[in-house]
Amino acid sequence: MRIGSIIGSRLSRFGLALSAALAAALATWAAPAARPPAALSPAPALAPLPPDLAGPLPELRRAAEEYRGLSFRAPVPAGLLSGAALRKEIDRQVAEEMAPGTLAALDAALKAFGLIPESLDLGTYYPTLLTSQIAAYYDPDRKYLAVVDLGPKDDAAVAKALGAAFAERARQGVLVH
Predict the structure, then answer these.
(1) pLDDT of residue 3
(2) Mapped to the 3 state alphabet, what secondary structure does the chain carry?
(3) How confident is the model over 35-65, as pLDDT tens digits?
(4) Alpha-carbon gap, residue 112 to 16, rounded angstroms
(5) How far apart, in Å, are the Cα atoms of 27 and each of 31, 82, 116?
(6) What mean pLDDT comes out for the span 7-14?
């Protein structure tokens, strides 16, 4: 047997084992077990939406219904969620929906493939990444819409960077999405 085929064979077995570990980790996370409503943890406390967000909601709802050709089944409660409360919600959901060891397996697989640096702790970084990327979300189990409160400083920075009109349309787009 040639050295290339020995190395290839070992790499193939390693790759298959690593792929299986990665697939198992992703499968346990991507398809969480359905929970009965009684098993749901309480929804985070939401502050009322400010008038500039709450005001256009009826028109945005009508436009979404018209565009999709579907009607809302019920009104959707909506409110503001602070960045700190969002992080707590992300941490709770990761703990509830990921089987123990899933992040560790995913961390090992991503490092083995060289997709993340060895120094990165995926267990810490992943919730931080999710928190930084969420502008709003709808919780289908608890049936509410949470809009992340960026605060006046970040709202002003977005308006300055994009222009006030575009920033407002972006906020409306987040609500409709």
Answers:
(1) 39
(2) CCHHHHHHHHHHHHHHHHHHHHHHHHHHHHCCCCCCHHHCCCCCCCECCCHHHHCCHHHHHHHHHHHHCCCCCCCCCEEEEEHHHHHHHHHHHHHHHCCCCHHHHHHHHHHHCCCCCCCCCHHHHHHHHHHHHCCEEEECCCCEEEEEECHHHHHHHHHHHHCHHHHHHHHHHHHHC
(3) 555 577 788 889 999 898 899 999 999 999 9
(4) 12
(5) 6, 31, 20
(6) 44
Predicted local confidence at residue 9, as pLDDT: 42
Q: Which residue has the tokens 């077995």?
A: 13
Joined together, the tokens standing for residue 69 give 């050709």
What pLDDT does residue 5 have? 38
